[in-house]
């Protein structure tokens, strides 16, 4: 069995300009813990997880006065991780499980070239192992 056999499609993705509030709404509404961030052509730019949203800094302020110094946009593009695991649709599930475990990730985008065609999670791998 391969990644293409267990991946979730269609893939929901975020634009880098999506606000973190919008991203959180989509993720919680769909039950996702991680989503790919893609450009207008659907090419993978990075991954945004629930933890990335929670860690994203508020607008920086002066630590002594609390005065906001600048408003940094809280967007998916600013908070995403540019590195991470991406897998191919033809990857065998045992290899996929090993790579995900070694990388410490619970989900990974499935790509053809740089285009996201699906997402695969540990839950998908576990479910496939029982079949």
From TrEMBL:
SUPFAM superfamilies: CBS-domain pair (SSF54631). Pfam families: CBS (PF00571). Keywords: CBS domain. InterPro entries: CBS_dom, CBS_dom_sf, Diverse_CBS-Domain. Transmembrane segments: none annotated. It comes from the Bacteria. It comes from Amycolatopsis nalaikhensis. Residues 7-65, 80-131 form the CBS domain. This is CBS domain-containing protein.
